[in-house]
Amino acid sequence: MTERKVLLTGDRPTGKLHIGHYVGSLKNRVAMQNSGEYTPYIMIADKQAFTDNARNPEKIQNSLLEVALDYLAVGIDPKKTTIFVQTAIPELSELTEYFLNLVSIARLQRNPTVKTEIQQKGFGESIPAGFFIYPVSQAADIALFKGTIVPVGDDQEPMLEQTRELVRTFNHVYHTDVLKEPTGFFPPKGQGRIPGLDGVKMSKSLGNAIYLSDSEDELWAKVKSMYTDPKHIQVTDPGHIEGNMVFTYLDIFDSNQAQVAELKAQYQAGGLGDMKIKKYLFEVLNQELTPIRERRQALAEDKPAVLQMLKDGSQRARETAQVTMTEIRTAMGIQYWD
Ligand code: ATP
Ligand code: MG
To answer: Which domain of life is it from (predicted)?
Structure first.
């Protein structure tokens, strides 16, 4: 029997999960979980959330259960996937420290995703050191669980590259093969970085998201406010579809692409109103989100059960982490006592 591949991914508890997570990562995780070909771990990255929310612990605390509910609602099954909480595994911090000695500051400065995020978060000259090094902590997350397959959105490619480098360096320096190089598993082209309502990457932290838990009213209000084509004033005016968020979303979410092509042609020729096309998009999204929303509401009735599920998952994850940590310390020559 071939050994199952370990799948590891996670999300920061900085808010509820959105439709970008759904197509960018969650859908893949559920499919891979159900294939039975993997040993899946999903981590709620609360330690990482502190790197840019240290002064706002309530946000992290409040988001923990929200993220867990989102997981369960989309079909992550705790019987098949170990769902755990990052801060429950102190070994992750230990490995992060060892990794930090194997990477230069110059290398960390080159990470394009971190560069963009530093700009977006407006840190200026006061970039928290913990934030700056978060890709190293992510490398530790993946490496400690020997994750070899990591289903994530496109913004995570630089993190995976960094992880592979650190794993190679660690194994080389300490003459071992204990750590494994991961590969990313990315969604189909165009779905790995879903734009938000304002056109930049949809993010929990940017207030530009459509959440899996949004009510029908919230969903309609967001779709109604979406950016279309400012020159499309009269219904009869020809409209542009490039940069038009309604069509961007239809490309991603409507399974009837022949219909989308027809609507695009009609819009470009003139004669298709913004309200009509937005109503259509609303229906497409609502059809996908309704079952998720309903399952989530039912699960939210018993929050203690969700918290217990996280505790059980974290306990199992820690046992695995401790075994690998002993192997790591042995390789480094610091396992002084049995
Ligand atoms: P934050 O603003 O706190 O960073 P986020 O919305 O970027 O939140 P993360 O928890 O950082 O979400 O990301 C979790 C996973 O979801 C990652 O694999 C990431 O690539 C993926 N992801 C996040 N946003 C999108 C998006 N807009 N499109 C596709 N995938 C996404
Ligand atoms: Mg992010």
So the answer is: Bacteria
- With 0.90 as the threshold, say if the pTM is over it: yes
3-state helix, strand, coil in the chain (%, to 5): 60, 10, 35
Give the structural domain span for 256: 216-298
Q: Do residue 186 and residue 226 come from a single domain? A: no
> Is the CB of 193 inside a 6 Å radius of any atom of ligand 1?
yes
Same domain, 48 and 183: yes
Cα separation, 125 vs 122, whole angstroms: 9
pLDDT at 1 over 60: no
Ligand nearest to the Cα of 51, by number:
1
Q: Which amino acid is at 126?
A: S
Tell me the HSE value of 229 on the side-chain side, using a 13 A CA sphere: 23
Residue 235 pLDDT level (bands cut at 50, 70, 90): confident
Cβ 14 under 6 angstroms from ligand 1:
yes
| Interior/surface letters 42-63, b for 16+ CB within 10 angstroms, e for the rest | bbbbbbbbbbbbeeeeeebeeb
Based on the structure, what is the number of domains in the chain? 2
Question: For 134-162, what is the mean pLDDT?
Answer: 96
Q: Which amino acid is at 64?
A: L
**pLDDT, averaged across the chain:** 95
| 281: helix, strand or coil | helix
